[in-house]
C-alpha cells in the first residue's frame, strides 16, 4: 500500500492487521488504528476512504490485541486489553462499525450471541447456541484455557 497512515507519527505507509468484506466493499484496519475502505476496480485495489478517528481502546494499557469479527452482517471490533501486566487480559471492549460513516460505536450487548476469540491461533468465530449469550470467549497468551467476558456485567471469569 502506498497510502500514508494518517495516524502514524513517522508518516509510514499503511499496513493492515485485519480485513473484512461488508456491503460489497473491503474494510481494513491499519497498525495505527485507521480504518480504510478498499475497492477493487479492473483488478486494481484502491483506497476509497479512510476514517477520521483511530480505533484504539478507551483506556490506557500495557498491551492490547484487536480482532475483527463479523456477526449478522455487521463488523465488530474486540479489544483484549492488558492493563496491569502483559500476560493477563484485564478488560475487554467491543465496538460495532457504523458504515458508511466509518465510526466505531461501543456496544454493551451482541444480541444474545456468543463470540470466540482465540489468541493462540488468531481466529474468531460466532456461535448462536449452546454457550452463554452476550459473551466473548477468549484465550490468553500461550495457555489453552478459555476465559469469558460477560458484556452485561463487564466481568471476566474462567470458562
UniProtKB/TrEMBL annotation:
It comes from Erythranthe guttata (Yellow monkey flower). Residues 14-150 form the KIB1-4 beta-propeller domain. It holds the Pfam family Beta-prop_KIB1-4. This is KIB1-4 beta-propeller domain-containing protein.
Amino acid at each position: 500500500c502506498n497510502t500514508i497512515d494518517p495516524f502514524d507519527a513517522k508518516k509510514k505507509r499503511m499496513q493492515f492487521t485485519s480485513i473484512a468484506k461488508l456491503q460489497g466493499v473491503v474494510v481494513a484496519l491499519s497498525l495505527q488504528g485507521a480504518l480504510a475502505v478498499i475497492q477493487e476496480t479492473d483488478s486494481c485495489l484502491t483506497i476509497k476512504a479512510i476514517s477520521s478517528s483511530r480505533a484504539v481502546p478507551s483506556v490506557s494499557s500495557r498491551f492490547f490485541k484487536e480482532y475483527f469479527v463479523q456477526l449478522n452482517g455487521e463488523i465488530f471490533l474486540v479489544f483484549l486489553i492488558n492493563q496491569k501486566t502483559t500476560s493477563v487480559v484485564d478488560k475487554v471492549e467491543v465496538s460495532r462499525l457504523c458504515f458508511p460513516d466509518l465510526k466505531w460505536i461501543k456496544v454493551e450487548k451482541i444480541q444474545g450471541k456468543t463470540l470466540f476469540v482465540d489468541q493462540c491461533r488468531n481466529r474468531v468465530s460466532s456461535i448462536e447456541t449452546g454457550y452463554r449469550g452476550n459473551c466473548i470467549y477468549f484465550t490468553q497468551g500461550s495457555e489453552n484455557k478459555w476465559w469469558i467476558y460477560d458484556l452485561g456485567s463487564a466481568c471476566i471469569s474462567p470458562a
